[in-house]
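We were asked to recover a plausible sequence for a given structure. The inputs and outputs are reproduced exactly as logged, with field labels preserved.

PROBLEM: sequence recovery
POSITIONS: 317
GIVEN STRUCTURE:
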């Protein structure tokens, strides 16, 4: 099968491209700038910035399926004058443009990497599943949900087979953002006041996410699915920190500060949002992809964290 992968040189793309090549698929990597090298891709095509006016015709020529990973990603301190408009331009309008041209080009399957934030932005007391009503509030989450809705309309009008994947926090070699910051904190050996937290959060290793995307590209039952995916084993923040310490080879120093005291300190310091991300619970029920497609994550959390830790240590020299 000939597969176009957008965001091929990004965090998830660097895991998906070699996996598809290993499974015998011809991978065309869509990149922003000409001359960008994508290991394991059979060919690359430069498409420039993604938006409502992107011309995808050359990239889509002869393609059977698309894995659309590229996006304007969620950031904590967005500097755009109008964040929602900026997210919509890439994530909603850019996705719509690609899907419309893919359908016109005869592409059969379109796999869209969405986000759990297309469902909710905040912590939830109960596991999320495919029946959870979508209620995003962040510009990023809204743009992702609108892209999903646009894809559903295109699929209904054209017959394009669309599968949507909604992952939670993704970690693995090359991870950035909050997870990399957590790696640095654990590696520093500083005591962390997180030992009293008993929350639960679902995560997914990037290799597991790539495996789910590869399956959705080929499985007949994937069309029309909105699949939630995770490693299968939710962790508390304290358990995650301990697991990272084990993987790095530097036992975590957790101080069992009561959660209420930690929350009070966060409020007084103006860090309530940070506390909510650390202490909140957000878990996933992924029975839909397991029952419908027979998917099982090929990597357990321990091996995923080991791979992440090895990359992290190597990146620090």
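RECOVERED SEQUENCE:
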């Amino acid at each position: 099968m000939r597969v176009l992968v957008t965001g091929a040189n990004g965090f998830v793309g660097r895991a998906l491209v070699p996996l598809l090549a290993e499974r015998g698929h011809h991978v065309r990597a869509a990149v922003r700038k000409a001359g960008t090298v994508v290991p394991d891709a059979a060919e690359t095509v430069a498409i420039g910035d993604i938006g409502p006016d992107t011309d995808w015709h050359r990239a889509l020529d002869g393609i059977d399926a698309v894995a659309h990973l590229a996006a304007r990603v969620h950031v904590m301190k967005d500097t755009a004058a109008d964040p929602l408009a900026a997210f919509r331009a890439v994530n909603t309008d850019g996705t719509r443009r690609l899907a419309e041209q893919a359908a016109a080009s005869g592409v059969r399957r379109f796999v869209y990497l969405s986000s759990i934030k297309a469902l909710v932005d905040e912590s939830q007391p109960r596991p999320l599943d495919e029946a959870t009503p979508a209620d995003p509030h962040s510009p990023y989450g809204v743009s992702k949900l609108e892209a999903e809705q646009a894809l559903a309309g295109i699929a209904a009008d054209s017959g394009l087979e669309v599968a949507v994947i909604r992952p939670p926090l993704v970690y693995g070699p090359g991870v950035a953002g909050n997870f990399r910051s957590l790696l640095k904190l654990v590696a520093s050996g500083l005591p962390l006041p997180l030992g009293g937290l008993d929350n639960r959060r679902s995560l997914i290793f990037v290799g597991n996410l790539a495996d789910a995307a590869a399956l959705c590209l080929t499985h007949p039952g994937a069309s029309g699915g909105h699949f939630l995916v995770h490693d299968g084993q939710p962790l508390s923040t304290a358990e995650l920190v301990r697991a990272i310490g084990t993987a790095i080879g530097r036992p975590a120093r957790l101080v069992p500060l009561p959660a209420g005291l930690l929350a009070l300190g966060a409020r007084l310091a103006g860090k309530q949002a940070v506390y909510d991300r650390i202490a909140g619970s957000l878990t996933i029920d992924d029975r839909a992809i397991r029952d419908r497609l027979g998917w099982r994550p090929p990597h357990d959390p321990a091996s995923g964290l080991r791979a992440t830790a090895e990359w992290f240590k190597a990146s620090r020299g």
